[in-house]
């Protein structure tokens, strides 16, 4: 019959392959779902900064600054930097866990942008950093801290925190690609971070330190980040201080992002 369709000549149009942005959003949503289905992973994320904030404020605040209020003014911007740097370790742990379970072997078989899985890790980082930083800030304000630069200063400080977390996160992503044991990634990560965090100006004024240690504190990137955070939240920020705070995160991104892609493709 003339009206009958000739199915042999019908061409089915293939759907367009999703682009890089669509891939990144999909893996970002995967990171969000991890928090939904495994909420207990937020425990370490939240409890560690809370304990550090309360412990140092009440135990050392009076001895170091004369009063809790004065110490909070000095200490809180620094503990925000410490929180973000510590939380960056979990990127490497999450990546190592996915590699151990064979998830990335499946990702490699998919027609997706090669960096999409890492985009998901970055989304998870942003969520972790924002949750932990907001909790620390709220605790500080409950204890009496008031940022002199108000909402604008706090907003700028949180943008700086996210940039710091983005740059530092590459270190632990590379570590996660090299080491397939999540606990080892965590151990090595914190072993490397601890000297940088505690030998900085986060908790005490370096003027009281020995000369050799003060020199290290003065060149420590964590100290530059902390100084910039204090300037944004309490006033006194300069372009030089801001650029020094971003120097290490920018260099880490430029150097380690290509290394990450090479390691991933090498596998």
Q: How would you characterize the largest beta sheet?
A: none
| Silhouette | globular
Give the integer mean of the pLDDT values.
Answer: 82
Low-confidence stretches: none
Proportion in helices: over 70%
Tell me the strand percentage band.
under 5%
What Rg is obtained from the alpha carbons, in whole angstroms? 23 Å
SSE order, one letter for each helix or strand: HHHHHHHHHHH
Number of alpha- plus pi-helical segments: 11
- How many domain modules? 1
**Multimeric state of these chains?**
single chain
How widely separated are the two ends? 58 Å
| Content-based structural category | mainly alpha
The number of E-state strands comes to: 0
What descriptors fit this protein?
267 residues, mainly alpha, 11 helices
Task: Please give a quick description of this structure.
By secondary structure, the protein is mostly helical. The chain has helices at 20-37, 42-65, 68-87, 89-100, 103-108, 116-142, 150-178, 182-198, 211-219, 221-234, 239-266.
What's the structural blueprint in terms of helices and strands?
Elements lengths: L19 H18 L4 H24 L2 H20 L1 H12 L2 H6 L7 H27 L7 H29 L3 H17 L12 H9 L1 H14 L4 H28 L1
């Amino acid at each position: 019959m003339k009206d009958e369709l000739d199915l042999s000549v019908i061409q089915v149009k293939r759907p367009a392959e999703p682009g890089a942005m669509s891939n990144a959003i999909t893996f970002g949503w995967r990171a969000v779902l991890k928090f939904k289905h495994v909420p207990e992973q937020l425990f370490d994320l939240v409890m560690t900064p809370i304990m550090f904030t309360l412990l140092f404020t009440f135990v050392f605040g009076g001895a170091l600054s004369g009063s809790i209020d004065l110490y909070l003014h000095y200490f809180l911007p620094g503990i925000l930097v410490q929180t973000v740097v510590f939380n960056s370790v979990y990127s490497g742990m999450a990546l190592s866990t996915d590699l151990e379970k064979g998830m990335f072997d499946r990702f490699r078989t998919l027609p997706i942008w090669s960096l999409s899985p890492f985009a998901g890790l970055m989304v998870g980082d942003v969520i972790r950093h924002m949750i932990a930083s907001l909790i620390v800030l709220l605790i500080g304000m409950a204890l009496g801290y008031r940022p002199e630069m108000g909402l604008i200063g706090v907003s700028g400080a949180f943008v700086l925190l996210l940039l710091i977390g983005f740059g530092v996160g590459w270190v632990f992503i590379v570590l996660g690609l090299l080491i397939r044991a999540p606990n080892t990634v965590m151990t090595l990560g914190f072993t490397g971070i601890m000297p940088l965090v505690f030998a900085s100006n986060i908790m005490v004024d370096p003027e009281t330190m020995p000369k050799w240690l003060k020199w290290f504190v003065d060149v420590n990137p964590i100290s530059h980040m902390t100084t910039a955070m204090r300037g944004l939240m309490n006033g006194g920020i300069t372009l030089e201080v801001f650029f020094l705070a971003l120097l290490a995160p920018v260099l880490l991104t430029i150097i380690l992002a290509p290394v990450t892609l090479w390691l991933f493709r090498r596998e």
